[in-house]
Amino acid sequence: MAEEDTWVDDDAGPLVRPYTVTRGRTRSNQSELELITLVMAASSDLRLRGGEPEYANILRLCQTPVSVAEIAARLELPVGVVKVLVSDLIEQRYLVYRAGATPDDGDVLHAVLDGIRRL
Q1: For 7-34, how does the pLDDT look when each residue is reduced to its tens digit (9 = 90+)?
Q2: pTM of the model
Q3: Is the dihedral of CA 73, 77, 79, 83 positive or negative?
Q4: The dihedral of CA 81, 54, 94, 71: what is its sign?
Q5: How far apart are CA 57 and CA 21, in angstroms?
Q6: Is 94 in contact with 65 (CB distance < 8 Å)?
Q7: 13 lies in which domain range?
Q8: What is the number of domains present in the chain?
Q9: In angstroms, rounded to a whole number, what is the distance separating the alpha carbons of residues 58 and 94?
């Protein structure tokens, strides 16, 4: 095995941190949270009562509406972890959210069919 193929701990990245931040939880309590869900801080007060630094980082990002996907990208965290953390902040009333528009399945099928007909 070539030396550049060998991983050392620093190169492997944070393997345990997301698990510890969510206290082992893999699902959020807010079933409505999707990648396109917009989240915003409920107030401009950024003071948290304890918690992980990721919570404060999310609050800082959410001073204007931002999607769950963008929060994950900016914090370089897995989306599942972000959903759990955002859900915690919603439950504690630090964040408010607005679910993304979900078109009726019939509307989607008609749009797809129309697109195919135009081909």
Answers
A1: 555 555 555 566 666 666 666 666 778 8
A2: 0.67
A3: negative
A4: negative
A5: 13
A6: no
A7: 3-118
A8: 1
A9: 10
